[in-house]
């Protein structure tokens, strides 16, 4: 599949107005990507667990303009409050995807979105938000193309695959990690020689059989700091240009993804822990060694990490942490050990959360259309 596959066919009808709602999850990378090439292409491949409880719900209302202009017409609301500061990012997104969705300037859009988790606090709200919006737009295109066409079962299946791939492709142009939120439960983004079907253009489902120990994995997210990050992910990615350790980091990520691919198949929980925690610390090491340098972890982030290490050493249980580009800690653990580990989290770790707030999440299976 190449970029040219995502240019739109001619539309068979006009739709005057409508309303579409999608719910799309966030995701948590196990092997991180940090650094982009032109057009939102990752410098290294990544793999993520799709989440379930952490999600964005977006309703897109669209009304056909009687006289389309030369610019995009839209307004955006977060939790029913108009967000003018979101408009530049959405406009940039529309500019990037217009070639693939040529109907964008024909409509006025009202975007109403809400998150089940704090915005801009390191739980990848851009991933769930941009993927939900891309899915809404793809649903409009599907109606424009297929609304009057009777499709066979095979054609419908192919249509669904194409729909998901293009939604992932478009999502990537809004936020790189958003391309990993369309499907689940394990998604790879970025070309890797050992991952069949992997692509820089969109996320793909991990193609190999996953060991039972990695199914129904839990992710308890400890909200150490619910405020907005001091440094946006976009700025952080750009700081990889000229970073003294960039090339070694990109090679490390490729090597770790190859190792993790085998681990996911053979059930090596100890190997999983080693790679996932190393990846999290390496991500933050890249931030601390860029110019300008910055630290997104907080003192309580480190307290939680040390508590997890001590508990794991004492009990031998397979609990580990990972971090996104923020202070919050994702505590990962298998379902078969969940009761004991969750009690540990409640008794020992929640005290380090802001106002005692945390989110119980687990592996999810992708986005859902609600309306």
Number of strands: 14
Low-confidence stretches: none
Mean pLDDT: 93
Query: How can the largest sheet be summarized?
Result: 8 strands, mixed
Percentage beta strand: 15-25%
State the separation between the terminal residues, measured CA to CA: 29 Å
Q: Rg, please? A: 21 Å
Fill in the CATH topology of the largest domain.
Answer: Ribosomal Protein S5, domain 2
Number of domains: 2
Annotated CATH architecture of the largest domain: 2-Layer Sandwich
Shape annotation: globular
Order of helices and strands: EEEEEEHEHHEEEHHHHEEHEE
Helix content: 25-40%
| Number of discrete helical segments | 8
Structural class: alpha+beta
Which class of the largest domain in CATH terms? Alpha Beta
Topology:
Blueprint (H helix, E strand, L loop, with lengths): L16 E15 L4 E2 L3 E2 L3 E19 L8 E6 L2 E2 L4 H11 L9 E9 L9 H22 L6 H22 L11 E4 L13 E3 L12 E5 L10 H6 L7 H21 L2 H20 L10 H17 L4 E4 L5 E5 L4 H12 L8 E5 L5 E2 L2
Parallel strand pairs: 5-7
Antiparallel strand pairs: 1-4, 1-14, 2-3, 4-7, 4-8, 5-6, 8-9, 10-12, 10-13, 11-12
Quick structural overview:
By secondary structure, this protein is α+β, with helices and mostly antiparallel strands. Helix content is 35%, strand content 22%.
